[in-house]
Amino acid sequence: ALLRQFRRERSYPKSRSVYLADLKEFTYWLFKYRLNHCDRARVASDTKKALKWLNNNTVTISPAVTCRRFITGRGGSTDKC
Predict the structure, then answer these.
(1) Beta partners for 80?
(2) Is the four-CA dihedral 71, 74, 76, 81 of positive or negative sign?
(3) Beta carbons of 77 and 71 less than 8 angstroms apart
(4) What are the pLDDT digits (tens) for 56-68?
(5) pLDDT over 80 at 72, yes or no
(6) Which residues is 70 bridged to in the sheet?
(7) How far is CA 3 from CA 19, 35, 38, 49, 52, in A?
(8) What is the DSSP code (8-state) at residue 78?
(9) Secondary structure letter of residue 75 according to DSSP
(10) Cβ proximity of 15 and 22 under 8 Å
(11) How far apart are CA 23 and CA 10, in angstroms?
């Protein structure tokens, strides 16, 4: 229902699939929708919990270490660090 409303507001066509860029835009739209339509204290509390979770569960990688996964021609993959 909310995805339909999002697409209607943006004049996007009806579709059974969602592109990644549209999904990111929809996620932000949901955030703004929640700010405008839900209890502000609840939104603040949930945001605080989410930020705390992100802070505790985010992996920090040294900027000097960059790993990339490459798909090989034989259907496998290899990591290049």
Answers:
(1) 68
(2) negative
(3) yes
(4) 887 666 665 555 5
(5) no
(6) 78
(7) 13, 17, 17, 25, 28
(8) E
(9) S
(10) no
(11) 13
Q: Which residues contact 34 (CB under 8 A, 6 or more apart)?
A: 43
* Structure-token pair, residue 74: 């034989």
Residue 70: per-residue pLDDT: 47
Confidence category of residue 4, pLDDT binned at 50, 70, 90: very high
The helix/strand/coil state of 73 is coil
Question: pLDDT for 24-51, tens place per residue?
Answer: 999 999 999 999 999 999 999 998 999 9
Q: Which phi and psi (to 5°) does residue 22 adopt?
A: -65, -35
The DSSP-derived string for 11-72 is TPPP-SS--HHHHHHHHHHHHHHHHHHS-HHHHHHHHHHHHHHHHHHPPP--TT---EEEE-
Q: How many CB atoms lie under 10 A from the CB of residue 3?
A: 16
